Amino acid sequence: MTEKQLQIVETALHLFAEMGFDAVSTNKIAQEAGVSEGLIFRHFQNKLGLLNAIMQIGAEKIALFSEQIEILATPEEKIQAVLELPFHIKEDEYPFWKLLNGLKWQNQYYDQTAVAPIRNIIEKAFKDMNYSNPTTETDLILAYTDGLATSILLKSTEVDKNELLKTLRKKYNWILKK
Amino acid sequence: MTEKQLQIVETALHLFAEMGFDAVSTNKIAQEAGVSEGLIFRHFQNKLGLLNAIMQIGAEKIALFSEQIEILATPEEKIQAVLELPFHIKEDEYPFWKLLNGLKWQNQYYDQTAVAPIRNIIEKAFKDMNYSNPTTETDLILAYTDGLATSILLKSTEVDKNELLKTLRKKYNWILKK
Amino acid sequence: MTEKQLQIVETALHLFAEMGFDAVSTNKIAQEAGVSEGLIFRHFQNKLGLLNAIMQIGAEKIALFSEQIEILATPEEKIQAVLELPFHIKEDEYPFWKLLNGLKWQNQYYDQTAVAPIRNIIEKAFKDMNYSNPTTETDLILAYTDGLATSILLKSTEVDKNELLKTLRKKYNWILKK
Amino acid sequence: MTEKQLQIVETALHLFAEMGFDAVSTNKIAQEAGVSEGLIFRHFQNKLGLLNAIMQIGAEKIALFSEQIEILATPEEKIQAVLELPFHIKEDEYPFWKLLNGLKWQNQYYDQTAVAPIRNIIEKAFKDMNYSNPTTETDLILAYTDGLATSILLKSTEVDKNELLKTLRKKYNWILKK
DNA sequence: TATGAATGAGGATTCATTCAT
DNA sequence: TATGAATGAATCCTCATTCAT
User: What does pTM read for this prediction?
Assistant: First the structure.
């Protein structure tokens, strides 16, 4: 990716994350990125192509996350790691996660392949732990993860992440109790 | 509200919920509602006015929920009731909740006054139970609620709600453990 | 058709005829027609829809021509009538014929169904006259008609139509000779 | 002309001929010619310059035709030769003639100097034959030529050129009759 | 010579909104 | 109340053209 392509992608990501894909015009992206509008289309074909490029970059980051989790020793550690994922998102990755979460609610654009690897890890972990209903347990864990991420991403200034994590950890033995 | 106003509101709600506010044109709403485009503006001033009307109706429903919860006897029951809210959303209320969740990620449109009453209930419940950190506990409960709602709303066909609720309930004593 | 629709169709026809379909912008049509650009799309969906509307109107005129020719008594009269068609095009119909001729050379847009009825008349006439090769004779007549139309439409100021017709008529007995 | 220049000219000619000058983008020409878009402008200044280059090459070919006709012995032979020109266009010259014919109908682009020499030959021939109205006779011959060319160029697959020429030739004595 | 990134004006089209009826 | 014609600003996108390499 050239520098200008990166500028476009970064700018678009931030704008999409804050305002939503449809609420951001290509003109606005171009202006804020300091490039001509035409350049967006030369590099990404169309607005959706730009979104896809952004999502692909994000999907690669998620894949990295997954790999790091998969090498953990025990299923319990894996589950805990996923549950704590929201707490380890760096601030500069917030826009991507905001975008991903926002798109979930628009069935024209949402492609859930990006997050699928994470679900697989959890489901396998519960199976390894011989849970009778690994799918349901997975749903519960992911719902919790999802809710925590939402809280952190949207209320970052108000929520005390450390306090939240500390309190969450006290509940682990119960969360995992069969 | 006249019948035509209702048609407009209902149609818009469904479309907004599935596609997102910005992705739905007033023309599309008018067509699907079987009314003229002008009528939307006569009744709701502008597109945002229509959204506000929808949100107000929804806020009233949430207020009803809140009232029903507030009359419960113990704080534990209240917390449990909130946590189980997602399981009691009727299918015809899905669109409103989808819309609300989608809008959360677009800071131009989101108004969180609608859901504030619920937070107040939980926070007060934890205080009544003499928790040392009621705010954090509230955040955790609401995050879980939020995640469960997301799961149910977006994967309604795949998720077995009964199974999920049964498994969730097994964890209550721990969830609430100080 | 409302008055504004007619204005659009008329203006577009003239511009398309003089400059070619692709060389005329919808903005230009709107300005010259004294309407907003949006109105073109409300009434005709898109630029091609506008072209189709124009062509349909023209096709109806051609159909009228055909009917008038078909009621002639003898095959010879019919052939002569077709050959003289170019001389009877009224000035206000020039734009349509210019457009039709220009489009012939662009295989994206050309639809030859409009002129098909005329060919049928000629071919049948030659059959009725027991020509051994009615198809070829038809090709020759239509080529001549086509060339005459081209000459008249493009060089109207320079060509003396009366003189041309007079000279043409001297050749009829030979043109039709088997 | 370098090889790349030729590629550009050839490709552009074919595309212009099939789709029309305005309907072909320089980008498309570059892609189909396998060169960069910038090269078109280095060699031909602008899109119109490319068209002019094409037309000039064609004009030279027409000039060659003219010379071959002018050396014929009698005026009758010359007229016949022009009338039969369409039958002697080689398939690889079709695109140029198609382009020329298409441009006739777009008064921004059309330059009729290319075909002027042919008209002069005919007009002189009729004068040499002491026709009283050589201009009108010329118009008729050229209209016929033009119509025949149109038929051959646009319906090459359907029209049997040999049959057409044979039938045409039967009519010569009459065509030329004063 | 040749490339391809970059531009910005202009393209068709859609949009929310207004207005006469 | 309700329609639907009409608007014009804004949308996404394409275009011919330029320029650094």
Answer: 0.94
